[in-house]
Write a structure and sequence with these properties.
Helix content is about 45%, strand content about 10%. The chain is an alpha/beta fold. The strands form two sheets. A five-stranded parallel β-sheet has the order 2-3-1-4-5, sandwiched between helices. Strands 6-7 form a two-stranded antiparallel sheet. α2 packs antiparallel against α3 and α8 runs parallel beside α11. The longest helix has 22 residues. It is globular and about 65 Å long.
Length: about 325
């Protein structure tokens, strides 16, 4: 297997469990998991367009391998929001040197930078060896770039994790309180729908859709399907989330620290969503929720104000119009 082209891309909506699945794969001896999301398609690619090789390298330093410029005493901007993470034992200069050495001479396809960055990380940390089969890159919304992924990396695999939109909203809204429930719901539908479309288009042997709740309630069974999907052997390390081999404390917006798979995040929306938010989420997300296997909760529509009922009615009409087109 060509390791420079054997990527696993983690896809899904933000706060849907993409970090957890990456952390679970991190300890497997056949996998090298990049420790932070790169936003490769949404941030790096638009920035390197029409730039020279040297300019592209500078962009890669800024967007792909910058995380290894870690300083606990004088933290750079990208470190300030992550006080619990420490990559100071990974040399930025060593990663940079190996990344450049891995790049082809002359014209460089932007895709080569991602492969080279992850390759360099694996080599510097010693995580990359003869037993390595894949490396993992996790960035939310990777699902919207599946066509490019399979064109550039024909042997790539995509794992798309989807979460109940009610729990997903409660978690996401704590980080982004400016988002309206309707705006979030439409975004969730776009992401989940894209995953369903990709699975049908590229086949379940290349694009696998899993539910966050199944991973938490039946981890061995769900991870067993992932092992089969990637054609790697089972390893008990899959049940222990890590980041670069160290214990992972989770990515919860509820200030909980996890060192193992935990079912607490399931059903957290109960008692936290208003009747209006619940009604709006189930109205906009309903069709896709059913496709993915989520059950609806009963709604107390009488508790809604006239204004709330009017907004809900407009969403139903708009949705019906979209479906009829």
């Amino acid at each position: 297997m060509d390791l420079l082209n054997s990527h696993v891309f983690i896809c899904g909506h933000p706060k849907a469990g993409t970090s957890l699945i990456t952390a679970l794969l991190d300890g497997h001896p056949a996998v090298v998991a990049y420790p932070e999301e790169t936003l490769f398609f949404r941030r790096f690619l638009p920035t390197v367009e029409d730039k020279s090789r040297d300019e592209q390298i500078k962009v890669a330093e800024q967007y792909l391998i910058h995380i290894f410029e870690w300083n606990l005493e004088n933290p750079p901007e990208h470190q300030k929001n992550y006080p619990d993470r420490d990559y100071s034992d990974i040399s930025f200069e060593d990663v940079r040197e190996k990344m450049i050495d891995t790049l082809p001479d002359g014209h460089v396809n932007p895709k080569d930078f991602l492969s080279a960055a992850v390759w360099a990380f694996g080599k510097v940390t010693g995580l990359l060896d003869e037993s390595s089969h894949y490396w993992v890159e996790k960035s939310p919304y990777n699902e919207f770039y599946a066509e490019t992924i399979y064109s550039w990396w024909p042997e790539a695999k995509c794992i798309h994790i989807v979460r109940d939109p009610r729990d997903n909203y409660v978690s996401y809204h704590r980080k982004h309180p400016d988002w309206t429930v309707a705006g979030f719901a439409r975004n969730w539908v776009r992401s989940a729908q894209e995953g369903l479309i990709n699975q049908d288009k590229f086949g379940q042997d290349r694009y696998s859709l899993i539910r966050f709740e199944d991973l938490l309630t039946n981890p061995e069974e769900t991870l067993g399907r992932i092992v089969q999907f990637l054609d790697i052997s089972w390893d008990e390390a899959l049940l222990k989330p890590t980041r670069v081999g160290d214990a992972w404390r989770g990515n919860s917006m509820f200030e909980q620290k996890y060192q193992a798979i935990n079912t607490d995040p399931i059903g957290r929306w109960k008692g936290r969503l208003s009747n209006y938010d619940l009604a709006m989420l189930q109205t906009i997300c309903g069709q896709v929720m059913s496709s993915v296997g989520y059950e609806f909760s009963e709604l107390d529509l009488k508790a809604l104000s006239i204004w709330e009922r009017a907004k809900l009615w407009r969403e139903k009409v708009t949705k019906a119009i979209r479906r009829s087109k």
